[in-house]
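Protein modeling request. Please complete all fields; requests missing the sequence field cannot be processed.
Requester role: graduate student
Desired output: 3D structure, token encoding
Chains: 1
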Amino acid sequence: MKKTILLAAILASINLAHGATLNWTAANIYQPGTTTASADYVGYLFIIDQSSDFGAKTTTVDNITSLISSHGDFSEFVAATGKTVNGRLSGATGYNGTNFQAGDTLTAFAVIFDASDPSSAKNYIVTASKTASWRGSTGAQTLGFGSQANATWTPVPEPSTAVLALAGLALLLKRRRA
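Delivered output (178 residues):
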């Protein structure tokens, strides 16, 4: 009987010990120029500001869009990744357990590419930034980025365009010196 009571107490404490979590969502993600729901697009979550170190580097929208434009590597700033299903993006960040305490805040934005791999994407959307706050160390918070139906798709520059622009700039600088 003592073992049964002890087991019940352990199971009850496990259920109470669930830590706070962070989820993120975006809706109405349509294929560029249409109202057809996207499928198998990829989205990335980036942290702008955080009250504690939750495991991902902070960044800015300008930094990430600059890296996308120059085909740079933004992976060191990715806090979470998700895939679209029927025009909806949702996912957990993996931040849970004792990561969040009462009073913690986190501000983030998402970038959604029109492909399952950003290297083959032709366009991307940058969401508005959102903030989540925790009242305690349990429960889930959601960064709801809302509908992206009216979002503007930004073209991803071709790599050759960036190379030609740099070459043109180099020639211009060389000409000025002469």
